[in-house]
Amino acid sequence: MSAPVVAIIGRPNVGKSTLFNRILGERRAVTHDRPGITRDRNAVRTEWAGRPFVLVDTGGFLPAAAAGRDADVRRQAEAAIGLADAVLFLVDAHTGVTDLDQAIATQLRKTGARTLLVVNKVDVPGDPGVHEFHRLGLGGPVAVAAEGGLGVGDLLDRLLALLPAGREEEESAPRVAIVGRPNVGKSSLVNALLGEERVLVEPRPGTTMDAIDARWRTGEGEFVLVDTAGIRRQAQFADQAEFFATMRALQSLERADVACLVVDATRGFEKQEARLAHHALEAGCSVLLLYNKWDLVEEREAAWKALQADRARRFPTLADLPAHPVSATGGIHLQRLPEQVAERVAEHAREIPTRELNAWLAESQARRQVPSDAMGRAPKVYYMTQTGTRPPAFTLFVNAPARLGENYRRFLWARFAEHFGFCGTPLRFKVRKSD
């Protein structure tokens, strides 16, 4: 199921990034009293009441801007509106309705975007000044104070009612997203695996601007390969088309079982690859690293050890991702990819019997007892069961979940992945109160 997209827009300095951070529950965007701090979109997957969505922050929207940085921000905001399933239009209770608010509202009405009008910086509940914003013609306003959190829960409840139902994918072959930064050879790899020039390949980056699906029939089964646009870090987005392409690539991860993250073997695993790996894991994909352009590497055995050691040193939480060297143009190790992808698909859908889970749980508690809380009360951990696949999800039933400390939870989850041999597959864990 692909998650809907929600864009936050508004004129400069109305608190868009503050609301973005409040919804995420963490400081993902830079906030400052000076207008113009946010110049690029910031897109992050989040959820409310179990409903996932992609939240997009944008810069201050100046509808009439025709040149310079403000025009770039305007185009970016317009791109976000065009892509979004719903828009949060943020205005400022302290300043009231401005000409800019009116201009943005007019544009939103013309686009027909599903819009929630959000009045920020409301000092007290029931502030009568909020009613002034009915003049914008976008329905009843929702009052919030993003800085303190007032009304944000009600806003998110309203948002969920506005969002379309998630788009269920029809049952088909497992989906394999080919992702990576521009010009690492993703399209060349897809063509090599399919044995045909299915995707246009050019030496300049940015040739692929949309996700392209193709059936890949192998001795290990049939898969759907999804070639995606190269994903730059957001500060490098050049234009509206590239933003759309990047967002579609990220949405492709939401629909995939496996993400083949293509790495340039001559450059190694860098920060952008780490970002993409985290994107894939957060979206629920199993991850397989493919170090492409292996034909350009000399002294390969030593080079491979150095590449793996460098990733483990710089990004220890991603050290266990399965990785393989390949060459799309030279055909190196491509014959092994179907088996490797099939292994990732199987792990993504893996199920563990409840008796095995609880035997492991009993052994883990015998090794390290559940600690007591500050009042000297130790929670009772009753049992564990698997509650989902693709990716695997597990629920731990406890008499008092609030007493189960974070350190002990981390101990259990780390030991779980090691014991059951999960590697490169995200695991979802929940703790619930036992009846």
Give the class from helix and strand content and strand pairing. Answer: alpha/beta
Named at the architecture level, the CATH assignment of the largest domain is 3-Layer(aba) Sandwich
Mean pLDDT reading = 84
Unreliable parts: 27-41, 198-211, 234-241
CATH superfamily caption of the largest domain: P-loop containing nucleotide triphosphate hydrolases
Care to count the β-strands? 15
What distance separates the N and C termini? 31 Å
Please, how many helices?
11
Q: Please state the CA-atom Rg, rounded to the nearest Å.
A: 24 Å
Spatial arrangement of strands, main beta sheet: 2-3-1-4-5-6
Structurally, the number of domains stands at 3
Largest sheet properties: 6 strands, mixed
Strand content: 15-25%
Query: What helical percentage do the residues reach?
Result: 25-40%
- SSE arrangement, N to C: EHEEHEHEEHEHEEHEHEHEHHEEHE
CATH-assigned fold name of the largest domain: Rossmann fold
CATH class descriptor of the largest domain = Alpha Beta
What characteristic shape results from the CA principal axes?
A: globular
Chart the SSEs and their pairings.
Elements: E1 5-9, H1 16-24, E2 42-48, E3 51-57, H2 68-83, E4 86-92, H3 99-111, E5 115-120, E6 142-143, H4 152-162, E7 175-179, H5 186-194, E8 212-218, E9 221-227, H6 240-254, E10 258-264, H7 271-282, E11 286-292, H8 300-314, E12 323-325, H9 337-348, H10 354-367, E13 381-388, E14 393-398, H11 406-420, E15 428-433
Parallel strand pairs: 1-3, 1-4, 4-5, 5-6, 7-9, 7-10, 10-11, 11-12, 14-15
Antiparallel strand pairs: 2-3, 8-9, 13-14
Helix pairs in contact: 2-6
